Amino acid sequence: MLYLTVFLSGAILMSLEMVGSRILAPSFGSSIYIWGSLIVVVMAALTLGYYGGGRLADRRPDLGMLGLILGLAGVYVGFLPFWSTPVNILCSGFGPRTGSLLAALAFFFLPSLLLATISPFAIKLATSNLTTIGNTAGHLSAISSAGSIIGTLLTSFFLIPAIGVRNIVHSLGALLLGLALLILVAVELERRRTAGAPEAAGSRAGALRRWRIFLVLLALALLGFFWRSTPQRTSFYTPEEIRYERDSLYHHVIVAQVGTRRNLHFDNSYQSAMDLDQPLEMVFGYTSYLHLGVVAVPEPERMLFIGLGGGSAPKKFLHDYPSLKQVDVVEIDPEVVRVARDYFALPRTAKLRVYTQDGRLFVDQRAGAIAAGKIRPYDLVVIDAYSESTIPYHLATYQFFRSVRRVLDRDGAVVSNVIGAIKGSRSGLLRAMGHTYAAVFPQVYLFPVGIWDESDSYERNMILIATRNPRRWSPRTWRDRAEALFRAGRIREDVPSYAQTLVDEPRLRKNGWYEGLSLLTDDYAPVDTLQNPLL
């Protein structure tokens, strides 16, 4: 019984920590602050739990007390999904650092502390001879670690995409309650067996033990009832509006429909949208700005998109530009590919090839194949893999941009959608990205989405275009080329108006826009800190 308890406690603790990032993601994204908060909270709980568990085990070396601890942990974990959403929303008002730490404390400190007491309790109960206490502690620690390994592997590799976070957490709570019930019943049966005579009907100790068993049974029954009868809810849609919802290996994916508009969400952010009556209409304005890349490289034949979402941009480019012979899309999440095809009308055509792979790895492999003359380079590369809450740092470094340059034709360009501000405390990420692009490409152009001025500190979508063309285009050149292509019908989006938002990047550089910034590199790319500065 002790070995099983130690093994399952280790497995449940690590499983809870693995799903913790998904519980926090709807309000805080998937930044490094999430994992930092989780690790700090769990380690603090383990420290106090080991200490407190050792003291309690010396005072009350009772298997029934171990069952009671497991029961309390089971109640807390099992009912966690019923109240996590409002607490997440409340804590999000404190920002990504403080908010994620407070939410992690609320969700995971107490159950982690309770589970941490199991190991010292088990060592105390299993030790019958001081001469073998080291061997006993070693065995139990190894069993606990083995449980932690199994819990981590099962949760991250199989359970999250198979049954989802909510079902996992409920199952962990039910497992803890079931284990507590097993221990409490075993203790009661053992007491009856060894007592030799029936306990007095009015015995206070006997009544207390029976009440413990009854309360654990009641908690299990209530958990099962609410688990089955309470539908999974999001914070912004009714159940009738949700068309699809699932935890993938990378995101909590939601497809919802309001009227004729179908939306795609990853965790806490909008990713794509489609008007069912006008499926080629760009719902999000920044996707129309991506067509400025065609002003830089008219009549492209080969394109690469890094990041798929709902696939609205690749779908639109394929429709608008007959010159395109091949469009490659690389998307790391296979579930996103299925959703784009099933819910957002991603076309199935020989011209469109979708690769389920990490974008950095794909670009590196393509760069090698292009250098070997096996395939042709791309005319345009569109990077749409960043969001307000998630910046894959390895897709924002000098080394990655060098690989992107290697897959481009000599007159090619890269178009990147970045969330940032031109001025103010939230401008660090955009300035660092521009600085890094400028170290790789001869020319870099910045187009804010919407109306702006040079004192604007508002965060928005920014379209950054970097070209291999060494000649600098003036704002008038951009406007004239955009106007000519639009009038000729070679670009259908309103690129003349988009071109007018061009930022005078040389003047920003002259005024110290890059001052104090290092290049983003594989060794140093603090994208989370730049996006959410301390001061």
Task: List the main descriptive attributes of the protein structure presented here.
535 residues; alpha/beta; Growth Hormone, Chain: A; 2 domains; seven-stranded mixed β-sheet; transmembrane; spermidine biosynthesis; Spermi_synthase; thermospermine synthase activity; transmembrane helix
Please give a quick description of this structure.
With 535 residues, the chain is of the alpha/beta class. 54% of the residues lie in helices and 14% in strands.
C-alpha geometry: elongated
Beta fraction = 5-15%
Strand order of the largest sheet: 7-6-5-8-9-11-10
Structural class: alpha/beta
- Average pLDDT confidence is 90
Number of strands: 11
* CATH C-level class of the largest domain: Alpha Beta
Q: Give a short account of the largest sheet.
A: 7 strands, mixed
Count of structural domains: 2
Portion of residues within helices: 40-55%
CATH topology of the largest domain: Rossmann fold
Low confidence ranges: none
The CATH architecture category of the largest domain equals: 3-Layer(aba) Sandwich
Whole-angstrom Rg: 29 Å
Organism: Hydrogenispora ethanolica
EC number: 2.5.1.16
Catalytic activity: S-adenosyl 3-(methylsulfanyl)propylamine + putrescine = S-methyl-5'-thioadenosine + spermidine + H(+)
Protein name: Polyamine aminopropyltransferase
